[in-house]
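Weekly modeling sync, notes
Attendees: S.R. (lead), two postdocs, one rotation student

Agenda item 3: backlog of single-chain predictions. S.R. asked that every request posted to the team notebook include the full sequence so nobody has to chase files. The rotation student volunteered to paste the first one in as an example of the format we agreed on. Action items at the bottom.

Example entry:
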Amino acid sequence: MSMVQRQLIVSMLLSVTLFVLLSISFFAAFPLESWSALWERKVLNVPFIVFAPTISILVGTIFGVISNIFWKSEIQTIARALQQIEQGTITELEAGHPPEDLQEIWGRIQKIHKLWIEQTKRSQKLATEKAEHQETLIEEIISQERHRLARELHDSVSQQLFAASMMMSAVMENKPLSDDRETKQLKMVEQMIQQSQLEMRALLLHLRPVPLKGKSLQEGIKELLLELSQKVPIQIKWKIEDAPLDKGVEDHLFRILQESVSNTLRHAKATTLEVLLIKRDDFIILRVIDDGIGFDVNYSKSGSYGLQNMYERAAEIGGTLKIVSLKNKGTRLEVKVPMVALEENKND
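Predicted structure, as returned to the notebook:
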């Protein structure tokens, strides 16, 4: 039996009941002498025989309509709540003020909703943990592969380039000085080998970045630049000031420096490199300057993973990265990290 049919039956029963009550009350108040009195006795100028059933049917109909609207609204509210659960809505369900007959149903619906939310949170947490574990595993695999490639390049290509460089140096020393074509070609080959060695060292630095390993940022920078100054034909100068830094900030700044130096060695064709780590006012400033060929910053920023990585690292520690590069005049990279951000990182 549908809800409409039930409401129709209830309305009919109410109408009959009301008609009976009106009739009993009328007969009790006005005893009939004959059945014709039903037409003669009037209520609001309407014969009682017409008034009683009309009022009964009207009241029953109004009650049925109102009752039908009420229950239909309650059922639609329940349907919307179930639809929200089905669609995965996590907002609180709007129960309103359900009648006593529906309070138990609403209690069960809200309990199901809470259980579903808890289950969803657990599922999302597991998915996040799984994704983080996979990312960590992938990063570890990539790091191991980069180190393997760096070792192989160092043990094979780098050694061969070094041997070729030594042989070319010996050849050039034993060959008498002249401006003939052969000598010029040998000098070009020697320069190509030296450039290849330079790019190989930069590539090894990029593939296998040296971690701080318990050293301070100042110690790590000095060690890195001292090692490079002994291996690459570039004049390297540095000025490193002592400043207490958070370990995470030190690591990010060191990685930015490694990426910048690697780019300089590989692409800049610079003769001098200057590195500064200073504290000015409320900022820690890392500055890397070279006199290389320069590049288009806007174009490279959109297409270079290395530059994007440096910008992201600077942003992660609350700092800013600015790069100014002029064609054939060099490049200047500057990272500014506010001391406020450092204090907040320490407090965290």
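Discussion: group reviewed the output briefly. Residues 3-89 form one domain.
Action items: rotation student to repeat for the remaining queue; S.R. to check formatting next week.
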